[in-house]
Amino acid sequence: MALVMYDLCGIDESLRFSPFCWRAKLAIAHKGLEVEARPWCFTEKEKLEFTDHDKVPVLIDGDEVITDSFEILRYLDRAYPEAPTLLGGPLAESRARFFKHYSERALQLPILRTIVMDLMNAIHPKDRDYFRTTREKRLGMTLEQFHSPAKGLSQLDSALEPLRGQLSGSDFIDGDAPGAADYLVFANFMWARSVSTADLVSNADPVYAWIERMLDANGGVGRNAVRICDIEGAYRA
Amino acid sequence: MALVMYDLCGIDESLRFSPFCWRAKLAIAHKGLEVEARPWCFTEKEKLEFTDHDKVPVLIDGDEVITDSFEILRYLDRAYPEAPTLLGGPLAESRARFFKHYSERALQLPILRTIVMDLMNAIHPKDRDYFRTTREKRLGMTLEQFHSPAKGLSQLDSALEPLRGQLSGSDFIDGDAPGAADYLVFANFMWARSVSTADLVSNADPVYAWIERMLDANGGVGRNAVRICDIEGAYRA
To answer: Is B150 within a domain?
Structure first.
């Protein structure tokens, strides 16, 4: 029985951009599993009433319902131990958790600052008020005031320094092959790539080469995902 | 037979501040081993001629000579597998390496910017020209131009965000007990603490509580280390 996952969609049902959902989808691909990723909009809270959570991803595996992207990674290792490891043992898992925080607290804000207006444009029209209201409250300013590709790219450039160091020693954060740490960080770049054509890193950056490798990993699940520029009439640069 | 290590010393032989040496000393303490930490000055390159390296730490264990702090951690796990693990298996080790880069590329520069004049004052007088010349070349400006506690503390505050996230979930980076990731990061705070009385984080910061736990770990090897303010006449605030 295939896994089922509620997955945020945008202006088109095929446009799936949530970085948290991408963590789960990349992890599922790493495990060699299939998933039916059902489209879900921010304002369709009633569709998630069967769980105690109001955000995606939500993973359903038979009788099991798992919420929170990091918990989904842990579940996949527990339920499918014979498939390639994501998090590893307790020590490796504890260190993997740092990459969740590195992604959320060092990388997401500079990326958002860069792509926020593209993101707004990619969101389903019925979700835009919800998105604007919740994000402006969190940011303490309007999206237009927050939007600054110049500042965002400069902050992102600094925040990527430790990653550059890591990639000077191995092809992936987790060594010779991608693992949970790679997916936790790379999901942010899938988010940006889905909704925007902005170049977040220069093509001479070791992070760029890593993104290219990650796009091709696991049968190109990243590379083959729909982007806003694939949807006729949806992209206004 | 006890381990021997060449360890950078400052204005007094008892003042040991190198963050790279602290990584090794904290790791040795974690393993429950004893070490004779021999004082070494930046300009005493001839004392390291028996190795192919001109920087400390250099660890000597019988016939083995190990240079580079991360390699010393790897060596300790290999040579003393029965003692508590530092790095763990390949996946855990790969992730631990990220903390080396996080320390060196995200934390050390803001800390240096904050404490550089204190550091200069703590360095052995015969080493000061060497230190100034090599660091000014690397920084592209004079130490006085680089020195800015206001900028340094602000940059450090941002750079610590992922660590704050991590410490919201566990007492140590590596979980319930400190491990290699903790030592790789904490060594920077031993560096600052040895040469300066500057408060790098506020006492309400979860990073502050973690520093306190780290100071007490392994019999208080961090807490008991000599600080510049312990040396009569050496500290000029």
So the answer is: yes
